[in-house]
Amino acid sequence: MSTSLARRLRHALSDVFALGYLVVCAGLMIWVLVVTVTDDSGESMAGVIPALATAPFSLVMLALPESTLGIVASVVFGALVNATVIGLCARALRRGNRPDPA
Fold first, then answer.
1. Of 18, 86, 88, 98, which alpha carbon lies 20 to 30 A from 6's?
2. What is the pTM of this model?
């Protein structure tokens, strides 16, 4: 990975909107884990909420074999990709018509 690409990813993921999105996604995952552990029936559908919050990329990863680790990995992957897109868009909107210095 080139340093320019690594720098852009670092800037995108350190944007306040991207970080806020990641905090919300982490909160949803904590909530899902608490609800799933405390649910005695085993029929909790709480895992749908973080999957939808990190769509469309998390839905692509749900093709992994069904397991708790696969679901968590799909949500983490979707959250990171979406946060990168959010950070890049926020940076482009702040920059306006000025050229990108990076």
1. 98
2. 0.81
**Nearest CA-CA partner of 29 in 85, 79, 86:** 79
Q: What's the CA angle centered on 79, arms 98 and 88, to 5 degrees?
A: 5
Helix and strand totals (H; E) in the chain? 5, 0
Mean pLDDT of 30-59: 85
Cα(49)–Cα(54) distance, integer angstroms: 9
Q: Please report, as a single letter, which amino acid is at residue 100.
A: D
CA angle 50, 24, 33 (to 5 degrees): 50
* Alpha carbons 1 and 40: distance in angstroms, whole number: 46
Q: Which 8-state DSSP code applies to residue 84? A: H
Cα 53-56-59 angle, rounded to 5 deg:
90
Please tell me which residue, 67 or 36, carries the higher pLDDT value: 36
Residue 47 near residue 36 (C-beta atoms within 8 A): yes
